[in-house]
Write a structure and sequence with these properties.
Layout: H1 5-8, E1 12-16, H2 20-35, E2 39-44, E3 48-50, H3 55-59, E4 69-71, H4 72-75, E5 79-90, E6 95-100, E7 107-110, E8 113-116, E9 120-122, H5 130-133, E10 134-136, H6 140-158, H7 163-169, E11 171-175, H8 179-197, E12 208-212, H9 224-236, E13 239-242, E14 245-249, E15 254-259, E16 265-270, E17 273-276, E18 280-282, E19 299-300, E20 306-309, E21 312-319, E22 324-325, H10 342-359, E23 374-378, E24 384-388, E25 391-394, H11 396-409, H12 413-429, H13 444-450, H14 464-481
Parallel strand pairs: 1-2, 1-8, 2-5, 8-21, 10-17, 11-12, 11-17, 12-13, 19-22
Antiparallel strand pairs: 3-4, 5-6, 6-7, 9-18, 14-15, 15-16, 20-21, 23-24, 24-25
Amino acid sequence: MAITPTFSARPRVLVVGGGYVGLYTAFNLQKKIAKSGGIVTLVDPLPYMTYQPFLPEVAGGNIEARHAVVSHRKHLKQTELIQGSVTAIDHENRKAVVAPADGGEPFELTYHDVVVAAGAITRTFPIKGLAESGIGLKTIEEAVALRNQVLSLIEQASTETDPAVRKRALTFVVVGGGFAGIETIAELEDMARAAVKLNNRVEQSELRFVLVEAMGRIMPEVTEKQAVWVVEHLRSRGVEVLLNTSLDNAEESNLKLINLPDKSVAQEFDADTLIWTAGVMANPMVRSTDFPIEPRGRVSVNVNLQVNGEFGVIPNAWAAGDVAAVPDVTGGLPDGTCVPNAQHALRQAKRLAKNLWASRFNKPLKGYKHKNLGAVAGFGEWQGVAKIMGIQLKGPLAWLAHRGYHGLAMPTVERKFRVIMDWFVTMLAGRDLAQLENLQAPRTTFVAAATPKSKPAAAAPAPAAEAKTEEKNGAKEDAAAK
């Protein structure tokens, strides 16, 4: 793959990853770097940034999928964009290896500064059958597929006469009781019940939703009292909430759950839908760099968001977001680092861009400091929970706080407008329950129409004796007619 000659000779700020940190860092630096004679280059496998807090609502039919993503090319007009993955970084020689998303030959990029913003990926465990039976909720594609799967299974169950197959299709399981898991099961439960109302061949009582959480409580970001309220709320809606429970096996979609810590059998049942939201981990690509990595697999950085090694700051290397162990001077995780969430990522990106620019002129850098404002979560229509600067909310007020916060946090004005319009339309017309089929093989119908149909085989000629008999019969019929 050839890089545009106009850009290739410029001093490059290489941004690895186009999520929250990558998008905002590139956006805040592109004009300044361009005016100074350099270029910002952003490398990401996808041409857009996904606002992940909206994925449960996309899966639940509240938000149009395209409205939850932000186009890199539309908003990074002075940034060199490369669709691919950085597979290795040799910072000592200021080189990175890029594998194009189209499967082309990997190539090297030289740079002056590098910003590691590769984000996080889904964290899983070695559970038999999980890879074959499960689906995550980390990408917009997964959210769309999950929405279609739930609606499709309800439709399939409506014409199924085998009770076991029908029960399996209408059982939906979410593993992980964090914000993503709770919001996902609540949104899907709302959508499924709305779909069943329109289908007189399926009863509401046939729907089964199961939440599996290994800890003794859910949602560690809120208070114990709020967590208990959420469990009671979900159970009042018919959701089975299983605490201190773990998924042990998922082979052939037969789920085996065990109690913790004694690992005794808890339940065993079949389910066609298994959603995994049990945590994330730093993108493992950082292990293919010469940067210091801390025990949790994140890049070690200081409060200025500079990569920090055993012998101090590593020049021209920066990192932030889920892939970096950013010190939280206000508290944070038990290890003293920032909680990996969008709230921190957006603010870290802005601080990183300012510090990187200041470093060009040997100006003092400012440490990242942000006290977590709290957490908000929505549980479907007019229900939610929130903890904002010590104030605890639940029900409709928390739901409004959730929408207000994320509506403002969504990047770019045009995307905010689209999402808010989606919410208004949903309030007036209900969730979008249209299922899209054949997304995996969209050419199926066209191929069938364009493929020449084989002609039916010609009938074998009649034997001579039969032919003569037919001629005589024909002659007699003609004579009779006269």
